Amino acid sequence: MNRELLQKPFEPAQIKQRKGRNGMLDYVESHTVIARLNDAFDGNWSFEIVRHDIFEERDEILVLGKLSADGV
Prior knowledge:
Elements lengths: L2 H5 L7 E6 L2 E6 L1 H12 L3 E11 L4 E10 L3
Antiparallel strand pairs: 1-2, 3-4
């Protein structure tokens, strides 16, 4: 595991913005996060969606996931 890479802040160009209900939201695109995880764990990681809830009245989806890496 490359802890230093995991703790490294993302470059400003990698941080995107979109309009949310309460103003602008910062986010990092999934392919950027996947590349970081692949580099830090040599591909030895997985992500599992444990549960998801749809809130139609709020136009939201809540996803609970589990990230496992290096056997943890």
